Amino acid sequence: MAAVAATFSYLAEKRRLASIETLLRLSRLPRREPKTFEGFDFSRIQGRDAAALGKLPSLADLYAHRNVAFVGPGGIGKTHLAQAYGRECCMRGLKTYYIKATELRDRFQKAVQRGNTSRVVSSLVKPSCLIVDEVGRCVYDRPCTDLFFDVVDRRYEKEGPNAMVLTSNIAPSGWDEFFTGDDTLLCALDRLFDKASVFVMRGPSYRGRELDTYSVEAVPQAVKVRGIQPEGM
Predict the structure, then answer these.
(1) Which tens digit of pLDDT belongs to each residue from 171-230?
(2) What is the pLDDT of residues 33-58, one digit of tens each?
(3) Cβ–Cβ contacts within 10 Å for residue 87, how many?
(4) Boundaries of each AAA+ ATPase domain copy (predicted)?
């Protein structure tokens, strides 16, 4: 009986790992040098609310239907944390989808041209965790803005574990500059942050920590020209 139980346990674990692998593949999260919470140096983060950042691996926001936003200058770890959040979701069997804001705009534009906006919006509503990286890197025209907030609206009503994770160099109060619309846009932004955890991150860039810089100088050499000897020879 013990051998049978061990076999069933082995097969169950094999199915679980295969499911995680499929979720990671479909998530579009980078597979090369994947970002994890274990790989993030939380000791660099200080301040009165630093403990809240340390609770991210619990996915409490997602289970509470709260969106998450990481705001701050480049190189401080926003994308790392967003991708780590998505990876943790996959490890727990939750569908995740990662996309840059510029890619999302391009996808919306193609959907408008092809007349399949409904299918595209539905595909972005399905994942438990939708990550939109680098909000503010491009401007959304009116059709794209409408589609973006259609996604926000439908996810707001979505049942089960659910969160949008966003990163930006710009505070949410300035996001209206990158979307085209009227007062309904402001209402949609309010809905996006109706229930949310916004982490405003400050500090020096973490990029280039393994960069070696060498100062070198080329020394001029005497050149021998046929029939002419360099001075001193």
Answers:
(1) 988 888 898 877 767 777 888 898 999 999 887 666 555 544 454 455 565 555 555 555
(2) 999 999 998 888 777 788 899 999 99
(3) 24
(4) 64-198
Distance in angstroms between the alpha carbons of the first and the last residue of the chain:
94
pTM: 0.84
Backbone angles phi, psi at 196, to 5 degrees: -160, 155
Count of domains observed in the chain:
1
Tokens of 94: 């939750």
- Token pair recorded at residue 111: 């959907």
Distances in Å between the Cα of 6 and the Cα atoms of 3, 15, 16, 20, 67 are 5, 14, 15, 21, 40
126 is a domain residue: yes
Domain range for 156 is: 54-200
Place of tokens 């239907």: 65
Q: Which amino acid is at 85?
A: Y
